[in-house]
Design brief:
The protein is mostly beta strands. The protein contains one helix and eight strands; from the N terminus they run E-H-E-E-E-E-E-E-E. About 6% of the residues have low confidence.
């Protein structure tokens, strides 16, 4: 089983090695510092990130997407699969009356062609959304018997 954690947007700047020219060993640290300052500045101004972390993992029959959405009820979560993209949208409502605020979160994930789109299911329990993406039979691993000659 593979587990991949995507906490941050995938638009980070990475410079691959090109013909002996390697990226700076500090490039990853610089990107993280930039991200932290941007996040801190947004929080100070009152903005919140519109993305949330997701875990992607699979077994031999299914692929799974797990998203932690604490404090968001099932009615405020929308899951849609269209054109090879799984989109998760959630709305968090805080406060009441004139002080009520609404924060919207969204995350889109590319889904491989090996998924049976008509069999996708989603469950939400204790603030954790789990989307199950069943694999097609032809894409599942199968054992091949080696014959003796």
């Amino acid at each position: 089983m593979r587990i991949i954690r995507y906490n941050q947007p995938l638009n980070r700047r990475y410079t691959p090695a090109i013909r002996g020219i390697h990226r700076s060993p500090w490039a990853g640290l610089e990107n993280e510092i930039d991200r932290l300052f941007t996040s801190a500045a947004d929080t100070a101004v009152g903005h919140t990130s519109s993305q949330f972390p997701v875990d992607l993992y699979e077994d031999e029959n299914n692929a799974f997407v797990r998203a932690e959405l604490p404090g968001i009820s099932r009615e405020d979560i929308q899951v849609e699969l269209a054109d090879g993209h799984l989109t998760i949208k959630a709305t968090r409502k805080t406060g009441e009356g004139d002080e009520a605020t609404t924060t919207e979160y969204s995350r889109a994930i590319t889904v491989p062609d090996t998924v049976q789109a008509d069999q996708v299911g989603a469950t939400s329990e204790n603030g954790v959304l789990t989307v199950t993406l069943p694999k097609r039979e032809e894409s599942k691993p199968r054992k091949i018997t080696v014959a003796v000659k």
